[in-house]
Amino acid sequence: MEFSYVPIVLSLKVAFAAVIIVTCTSIPIAALMAKREFFGKDVVESVITLPLVLPPSVIGFMLLYVFGKNGPLGKLFEQWFHTRIVFTLAGAVIAAAVVAFPLMYQSVKVAIENVDQNLEKAARTLGAGELKVFFTITLPLALNGIVAGLVLAFARSLGEFGATLMIAGNIPGKTQTMPIAIYFANEAGDTGQASVLVIIMTIFSFLVIYGLNRWGKGSRRDSRGGGA
Amino acid sequence: MLKAFFQKKLPTFELEIEFSLNNGILALVGPSGAGKTTILQCVAGLQAPSSGEININDKIVFSSEQGVNIPIRKRRIGYVFQDYALFPHMTVEKNVMYGKPQKGSIPNKVLTVSNVLEMLKIEHLRNRYPNQISGGEKQRVALARALMTEPELLLLDEPLSALDQDTRSTLQQELLKLQVQWQIPFILVTHDLQEAEMLGDQIIKLDHGKQEELRKFDKAQ
C-alpha cells in the first residue's frame, strides 16, 4: 500500500489547535490558582488535574456524553453553529486539549509560584497595579516554565489516542491522526505505513524530551550565574 | 511628615508602635523577629495593621476606625528591600525606569533617569543586568529605583547588612547625604545599633513588639 502523509498533517493541525486552546485557558487559570485562595480550591485543583490520571477511554466516554448529539454542549453547537463535534477534527482537538491541559497547567502554575514574591511586591511599591505586575514581572519570569509546558502539551496532543478515537473516530483523511493510523495500519497488516509513522513519532518525542532536558540544564546554569 | 500609631497581631506577640517623623532618618533597631520589617510593610501597605492609623503628609493612608486602607501603589512610598528585589530580566536602566511617574502626574517635578543614575554614581551600569553587578551596586540601583518614583517617604529594610565593611561605610555616608538632598523622611531598619546611632536622628529600639525610644532629635523641630 502507498504511504500516506495525511495522518501527520492532521496530527499537526490537531496539536497546534489544542496547544492554542490550552495556552489561552491554562495561563489565566494557573495564575488564579497560584495567587488566590477561595472556598473549594482543592476540589477545583483536583478536577483540573484529573485528566492526567484518568484512563483515556473514560475521558473519551465523558466527552462523548458532553459533546454527543444529545449532550448539553453537543446540542448547543448544533443549534448555534449548525455543526457537530463528534466524528470531526474538532472532536480530536477537544480530546487533545483536555488531556494536554493538566500538563501545561501544572508547569505554568509551578513557574508562577516560583517567581520571587518580593519582586512582585517591589513592583507594587513602584506604583504598578496587579495587571502590570502580572504582565511585566510574573509572566516574563515564569516564561521558562510556560515554554516547557507548551512543548509537553504539544507532544501530548500529538500522541493522544484513546479519547480521540472515541470522540473523533477513525475516518481516514478526516480524523485519522498519527497514533490512530498506526493502530489501524498495524491491525490491517500494513506494517510499512505503521513503522514509518512509529519512527516519526519516536524521533519527534525523543527530540522533545532531549530538547527540554538540555534547555532545563541551560536555564538552571543561567540562574546560578545570576543571583539577583 | 509621617505620623503612625498602630497594633499588629503576630503569631507570638503583639506589635505596638507609635512614632512621628518630620524629616530626617528614623532608625528601627532590634534583633531578628522583633517586628521591624512588619512595621515597614504596614507603613508601605504590604501588610495591614490590626488597628490604628497611619498618616503621611496629612493624608490618612490607613485607619482602622475609618476603614481606610489605601493601596500600596497610591501611597507614594519608596521601598528598598533587604535583598534589593531588582528585576533580574531588566537592565539597570529599565529597573530604575519601572516606577517613573507618568508625565504630569506630579506637578513641578522634573527628574530624569540620568539625574538619578548620576546622583547614585551608577550611570556606567545603565545597560547591565542585575546579575552582572556587585552587591553595593545593586544597592545603589535599588535606591535609584525607589527615588525615581519621587516618593514622599523612603523605607529601607536592612539596606546595608549584606555588604562588606568598606562599601557599607561609603553607603552610610551617602544615605545621610541623600536624605539632606531629598528632604523626605527615611525609615531605616537595622539590627546594628552602631549603624542606627550613626544614621538615626531618631532611634526606636524594638523588642518583642514593644518600643523603647533611644534618641529623639527631629531635624525639623
Rounded to the nearest angstrom, the distance between the terminal CA atoms of chain A is 60 Å
Low-confidence stretches of chain B: none
Radius of gyration of chain A: 20 Å
Number of strands of chain B: 11
Shape annotation of chain B = globular
- Which second-level CATH architecture of chain A applies? Orthogonal Bundle
Instruction: Name the beta content range of chain B.
Output: 25-35%
The number of domains of chain A is 1
- What is the CATH third-level topology name of the largest domain in chain B? Rossmann fold
Principal-axes geometry of chain A comes out as globular
Radius of gyration of chain B equals 17 Å
Helical content of chain A (DSSP H or I, runs of 4+): over 70%
> What order do the helices and strands of chain A follow?
HHHHHHHHHHH
**What is the string of SSEs of chain B from the N terminus onward?**
EEEHEEEEHHHEHEHEE
At the fourth level of CATH, the homologous superfamily of the largest domain in chain B is: P-loop containing nucleotide triphosphate hydrolases
Domain ABC transmembrane type-1 (chain A): 8-210
Function (chain A): Part of the binding-protein-dependent transport system for molybdenum; probably responsible for the translocation of the substrate across the membrane.
Organism (chain A): Desulfosporosinus lacus DSM 15449
Transmembrane segments (chain A): 12-34, 46-65, 85-105, 133-155, 194-212
